[in-house]
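Holo prediction — flavin mononucleotide.
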Amino acid sequence: MDVSEVHNETFEIKDSVNPDMIKMNVFEAIATRRSIRKYTSQDVPMEILGLIIDAGRYAPSAGNTQNWRFIIIKDPSNRQKIAEASMQQLWIAEAPILICVVSETEKLKKFYGVRGERLYSVQNCAAAVQNMLLTAHALGLASCWISSFDEEVLSRTLGLPGEVRPQAVLPIGYPDEIVPAPSHYTMENVTYFEAYGRRFTNIERIMQNPLVFDKISRMISGFIEAGKDAMNKKKK
Ligand SMILES: Cc1cc2nc3c(=O)[nH]c(=O)nc-3n(C[C@H](O)[C@H](O)[C@H](O)COP(=O)(O)O)c2cc1C
């Protein structure tokens, strides 16, 4: 067995993941991703985790600054500390892996001043997070975007220097719950024409009824009850 030792942990080196395992297209992934807060104890293979990290580092970033850094947390006591720092959202520690997305702000401050430091640095990481959530979901994994945390406590736990700020914690695991889609504002409610506040009615028809996400989401919700039944049977 080919192995690698990293920080006293031994990792098995396996063949790389076959991209054919990704069965979902981008529309399905966007429409059916949910925030999942309950995970099975099944471990997440490192090669799968690699795909999720890769998706993060392929996100767009202002001036291609790529200020995101990803901290992988496996150790149960570290997971517990992070869950506690996240306003006692203790369910977070139950996920076998946490990925903490942190932002190196120095380069952005140097290139773009206050706007770089406060806005671009956050937006870049947010783009990476969304890529990662969609990829995790497309691979059959579950996650939840966590940004409710005590920044000081989390920074201390992760050993972050002053110019590096935590942006999000992503618990990664196999889902152990099925969650219905939350409601979404209609396109008419959230889209304006030419200036803020200028709505246009019938927008869905004008735009050729592009409600592909609502449709997929509705279709999937039809399977939710069946899925719940199957899960309950498996547990029994
Ligand atoms: C910036 C941000 C911060 C969030 N922080 C938390 C959090 O701390 N805890 C949590 O349980 N969910 C958190 N969420 C997840 C939202 O509650 C969730 O995305 C929303 O309810 C919509 O549900 P969905 O993700 O299933 O579509 C956060 C989401 C975002 C985008």
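READOUT: The mean pLDDT is 90.
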